[in-house]
Amino acid sequence: MKIPLVVALVGLAISFALPTFAQQKDTVDPKIAQQIRALAMKYEEAFNRQDPAAVAALYAEDGVNVTPHAGTFHGRQAIEKNYAKWDFQRWHAHNFVKTIDRVIAVGNEVRAYGTWSCTYQETTSAPRNEEGHFVWVVVREGDTWKVRRDTSSESNFHATN
Q1: Beta strand residue intervals within the chain, DSSP E
Q2: Which H/E stretch holds residue 39?
Q3: CA-CA distance, 43 to 54, in Å (whole number)?
Q4: pLDDT of residue 120
Q5: DSSP classification of residue 123
């Protein structure tokens, strides 16, 4: 009899806590949040120039990139090859936008959560817009922030007219 009451109380507590968590903003120093958003802008610029070396340079040496289509890539060299082969050569990706919605500190790391969107056009198909969510784990390397882990998921894509 006591177990259902405890379960009900825990469920009630969670239902009150979830909206509070959903409304949370950045939980890091505003200067750090600004630096992480600047890193995202550098990422966008390098991506939209279709410069795989510049994109990969934004990752930590031991960085990991987990993509929804091509798999998981470990280290800057593998990440650079992935961008060159898939995003730029095969899919001709452009109009990339990465928006950071939330930045939080977790120990010595910073986590950035947000959305991304992009237009892809394979040689034999119509352009399609794709969008999704991402999580970055960002760390300091010297005086700069680098992406240690980039995990993306796709939430929508459709052909453009």
Answers
A1: 59-66, 72-74, 94-106, 109-120, 128-141, 144-159
A2: helix 30-48
A3: 8
A4: 87
A5: T
Separation of alpha carbons 130 and 158, rounded Å: 7
Question: According to the CATH classification, is domain 26-159 in 3.10.450.50?
Answer: yes
Report the C-alpha dihedral over residues 55, 57, 60, 61, rounded to 10 degrees: 120
pLDDT tier at 91, thresholds 50, 70, 90: confident
Nearest to 37 by CA among 48, 26, 24: 26
Q: 103 φ, ψ to 5°? A: -130, 125
What is the SS3 assignment for 46? Answer: helix
Q: Give the domain ranges of the chain.
A: 26-159
Q: How sure is the predictor about 140, in pLDDT bands with cuts at 50, 70 and 90?
A: very high
Separation CA 48–CA 149 (nearest Å): 21
First to last CA, the chain: 60
Token pair for residue 25?
A: 């903003």
Query: What's the pLDDT score for residue 76?
Result: 97
User: How many whole angstroms separate alpha carbon 56 and alpha carbon 146?
Assistant: 10
1 three-class SS: coil
Torsion of CA 140, 142, 75, 41, to 10 degrees: 60
